[in-house]
Structures are given as C-alpha cells and as structure tokens.
Specification:
With about 120 residues, the protein is mainly α. The chain is built from 9 helices and no strands.
C-alpha cells in the first residue's frame, strides 16, 4: 500500500479534488478510507457506492455526507451490512429508515429502529 495515498485518504483536511482522484485507486483499502472521509465530494461518494467491494459501499453508507439519493440506493444493496450502515446514517430519509425497519435481515431492522427516528 502506498503510504502517502493512505495518509491523504485519511486526512480530514484533504482536498475534495485529492479525495476524488483517490476514489479511483486500485487499492480497495484506499477507497474505503476515501469513502469514510467527510471531505469526499458527493460525486465521488456516488461513484464509490457502486464499488464491487462490499466494504467500500458499507463505508459510503455510513458517511453522513453521502447524498440522500445515494443513501436511498444503498438501502437496496444486496449486502445486509451495507443496508445496516445505511439505516443508521443520520442523513437517511425517514421514509427509507421506515422501509429498512421492515428489512428481512434482523440487524438491518434493529439498526433502523435503534436510530430513534421511528
């Protein structure tokens, strides 16, 4: 792993441009760090929400700065861990949290209910 990329991806003061560039990195660990960074631009988070790596999508779902429409899409992700993190995101639409409270997976339902929003 490139240590300078790792440092930038985890830097809370990294520029949105640098984070957007790193969102295309071949290393999934770098993409995870970018996905959880609050300075990552919305366009990059939207792109990362389609990543093949579940862990990357999971961190996008948990980022409070992920666009609401992207969170709505992640609420339908095939992986329950992604849906579970999306259900806890404070930026999630109430209607989507209510939908996740009826998810087939117990953990997703529990996370949605425990937000205290429903």
């Amino acid at each position: 792993m490139d240590k300078s990329k790792w440092k930038t991806a985890n830097d809370t003061h990294a520029s949105p441009e640098d984070l957007a560039a790193l969102s295309n990195d071949h290393d999934w660990m770098i993409r995870i760090a970018v996905a959880r960074n609050n300075n990552t631009p919305p366009e990059a988070l939207k792109k990362l929400s389609q990543d093949m790596e579940t862990s990357v999508r999971k961190h996008v779902a948990g980022n409070p700065f992920t666009p609401v429409d992207t969170l709505d899409e992640l609420a339908n992700d095939r992986d329950f861990m992604v849906r579970g993190d999306a259900s806890r995101n404070p930026s999630m639409r109430l209607a989507t949290v209510e939908k996740l409270a009826e998810d087939p997976n117990y953990t997703v339902r529990k996370n949605a209910i425990e937000t205290g929003r429903i």
